[in-house]
Amino acid sequence: MTADAIEVRALGAAEAVEAVPALARVLVDCVENGASVSFMAPFTQAEGEAFFARVAEDVAAGQAILVVAFRDGEIVGTVQAQFARQPNQPHRFDIAKMLVHSKARNRGVGAALLAVAERAAAATGRTVGVLDTVTGSVADRLYARAGWVRVGEIPDYALWPRGGLCATTFFYKRVGSAA
Ligand SMILES: CC(C)(COP(=O)(O)OP(=O)(O)OC[C@H]1O[C@@H](n2cnc3c(N)ncnc32)[C@H](O)[C@@H]1OP(=O)(O)O)[C@@H](O)C(=O)NCCC(=O)NCCS
User: Fold this and answer.
1) Which residues form the pocket of ligand 1, taking CB atoms under 6 Å from any ligand atom?
2) CATH code for 2-128?
């Protein structure tokens, strides 16, 4: 799938390992620019690489799909579909770590990443996706536009990277044969 000549696709296990430094650079950029995505500022390249090295292990273990956006061969965005590990939820996945580098935003990359992740999860037989995001954020609007259903809001759920609490909204979406 392409958006403004941007290639968006899932990575294989070896590619995921190779992409770790570039993915970490996107994560560092997002945290440093104020995104509430699990981490606090200051956030280092080494911490980002440690995080994505674990994601690459999940890809190799078949527990996650790692979707990446390339612009002129450079990684500018990513998202994951993580498979639920509970034995009674083999049909469920979580969308996590939707990240677009600040220099590549507002061109449809986020929407394209999400569409590819949903399709890839559906292709494995998953039928229900769950995600959460900062209430009222750009991502909140993006998910709603893509047909994700707002379930509810939890106040004071997480911290911004430099402190201060923010609310989180939970969403779900039926995909594939359940859509
Ligand atoms: C949330 C995030 C991933 C969105 O990525 P993105 O690539 O900018 O997303 P899109 O381009 O699909 O949509 C963003 C906006 O650009 C607009 N847009 C999309 N294509 C466009 C185009 N060609 N021209 C102008 N505007 C465009 C969209 O309508 C949307 O507008 P809105 O903010 O008014 O709702 C990005 O802002 C980000 O990485 N933020 C930091 C990390 C984060 O918070 N992630 C969410 C975790 S749940």
Assistant:
1) 30, 35, 37, 98-100, 105-111, 133, 137-139, 141-142
2) 3.40.630.30
Q: Are 143 and 118 in contact (CB under 8 A)?
A: no
Record the tokens describing residue 54, joined without a space.
């674990």
Please give the model's pTM, rounded to 2 decimal places. Answer: 0.97
Mutation test residue for ligand 1: of 38, 107, 150, the one with most atoms within 8 Å of CB: 107
Domain limits, the chain: 2-128
Question: Tens of pLDDT along 77-91?
Answer: 999 999 999 999 999
Give which of 154, 142, 61, 54 is closest to 105, Cα–Cα: 142
Angstrom distance (rounded) from CA 140 to CA 134: 7
3-state DSSP assignment of residue 58: helix
Distance, CA 89 to ligand 1 centroid (Å)? Answer: 30
Q: Are the beta carbons of 178 and 127 closer than 8 angstroms?
A: yes
Amino acid at 110: G
Query: What does the pLDDT look like over 102-126, one tens digit per residue?
Result: 999 999 999 999 999 999 999 999 9
